[in-house]
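Why should sequence recovery work at all? Because a backbone constrains its sequence more than one might expect. Tight turns favour small or flexible residues, buried strands favour hydrophobic ones, and helices have their own preferences. The token representation captures these environments compactly. In the example below, the structure is given first.
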């Protein structure tokens, strides 16, 4: 039986199947822009922040390959990936509601507020990973490979929109008259209400994707595989380790680039609020409650919103640029702009001009969310799409774990709790990722025979 070719999907169909990412990234934007601020409000010191942030990559390390493996072997009336969207969205929404209210819950539960906040943060992170990984795999499931770049670019556009809303939401609520001043040991009302809105938006967008997208059936996947059954024998969780041992060479090369890219991103997410407070607002590292500190927190959210906003037009440009100069050259160029953007935050003292730094980061963020995956799906067999997307996440979370362990002590012991210097280190790491992309990664310059040899190395 000859292989059946996957039909091209329309732009509307691609948007429909990726709409849930808008809500996920709104939740992610709220977390990235406010988690350090919330933890500081609850009494965490700056050198402790990266340790508390460890819950995010650790949960991703565990959850994503498991969810990917389960999705590869799930065939339910709801679909292959959609059950995990729904479960992850519901649990993440609960985490969004509970995290900023950890102090109030502490009084009822007689628990340590920071411990409770970390538990809620872990719940939220695990749930985001449960919902996020299947969306990456869904692009590989639903689209023919020549539509991969546009599929991931559409996801990037929706991610940018969701992150802009999530990042700016606390500041918008402040302008509507809701207080952004946090009583000692509590979180400001504008952050609490922003998290409530994010929870509702997440549920709505996930439901939109579930109701507007029909996944392929096992029989249709069999036809795409030339008549070969998709599930030939009962799957086991130990298969994940076998699959990891057989990862394609292209994934290893892209993984090295991802390591430096995500090390830089984690640095930015964790330490920007403290960097702004000390370097741009002139506060001492010990000040984590004042009005000026919370202004720095609001500015962090706005800047994160800006780089996500800039990512949207760059996401539209990724496909034509990649056709012009190649996928890996496009990604390397974007990482150069991102690295320079982070480094420039040290030299731009006037906060009114920090948007310039965010332009470069927007280009980098758009590419990081799209180009590695667009290159990767050429080397992944259809039946292993979910688990390999989950395993690829290792190269995202491991650098965050390493940074989480050592970042705080470095900021404290080497930079005297002035985090702006570590932001510069993150920029240098992104530049290293650009160099590695050019010299170590092969993508469209590989011949079809080389790609086929990589695929044949994968454990079926």
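From this structural description, the recovered sequence reads:
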């Amino acid at each position: 039986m000859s292989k059946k070719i996957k039909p091209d999907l329309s732009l509307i169909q691609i948007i429909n199947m990726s709409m849930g990412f808008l809500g996920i990234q709104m939740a992610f934007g709220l977390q990235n822009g406010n988690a350090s601020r919330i933890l500081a409000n609850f009494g965490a010191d700056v050198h402790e922040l990266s340790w508390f942030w460890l819950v995010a990559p650790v949960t991703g390390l565990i959850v994503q390959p498991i969810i990917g493996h389960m999705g590869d072997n799930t065939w339910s009336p709801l679909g292959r990936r959609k059950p995990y969207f729904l479960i992850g969205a519901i649990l993440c929404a609960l985490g969004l509601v509970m995290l900023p209210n950890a102090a109030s819950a502490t009084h009822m539960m007689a628990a340590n507020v920071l411990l409770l906040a970390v538990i809620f943060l872990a719940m939220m992170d695990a749930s985001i990973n449960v919902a996020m990984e299947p969306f990456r795999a869904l692009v590989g499931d639903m689209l023919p490979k020549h539509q991969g770049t546009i599929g991931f670019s559409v996801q990037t556009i929706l991610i940018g929109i969701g992150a802009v809303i999530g990042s700016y939401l606390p500041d918008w609520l402040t302008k509507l008259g809701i207080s952004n001043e946090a009583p000692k040991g509590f979180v400001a009302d504008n952050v609490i209400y922003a998290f409530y809105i994010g929870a509702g938006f997440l549920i709505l967008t996930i439901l939109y994707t579930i109701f507007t997208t029909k996944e392929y059936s096992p029989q249709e996947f069999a036809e795409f595989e030339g008549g070969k059954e998709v599930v030939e024998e009962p799957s086991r969780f130990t298969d994940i380790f076998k699959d990891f041992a057989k990862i394609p060479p292209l994934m290893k090369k892209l993984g090295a680039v991802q390591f430096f890219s995500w090390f830089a991103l984690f640095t930015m997410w964790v330490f920007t609020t403290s960097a702004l407070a000390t370097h741009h607002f002139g506060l001492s590292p010990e000040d984590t409650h004042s009005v000026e500190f919370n202004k720095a927190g609001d500015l962090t959210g706005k800047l994160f919103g800006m780089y996500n906003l800039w990512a949207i037009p760059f996401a539209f440009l990724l496909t034509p640029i990649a056709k012009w100069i190649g996928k890996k050259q496009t990604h390397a160029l974007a990482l150069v702009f991102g690295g320079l953007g982070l480094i420039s935050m040290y030299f731009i003292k006037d906060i009114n001009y920090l948007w310039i730094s965010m332009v470069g980061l927007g280009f980098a963020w758009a590419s990081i969310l799209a180009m590695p995956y667009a290159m990767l799906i050429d080397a992944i067999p259809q039946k292993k799409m979910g688990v390999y997307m989950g395993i690829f996440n290792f190269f995202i979370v491991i650098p965050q774990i390493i940074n989480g362990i050592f970042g705080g002590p470095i900021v404290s012991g080497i930079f005297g709790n002035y985090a702006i210097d570590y932001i510069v280190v993150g920029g240098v790491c992104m530049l290293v990722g650009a160099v590695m992309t050019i010299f170590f990664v092969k993508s469209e310059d590989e011949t079809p025979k080389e790609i086929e040899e990589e695929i044949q190395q994968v454990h079926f």
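A few observations help interpret the result. Residues 444-460 have pLDDT under 50 and may be disordered.
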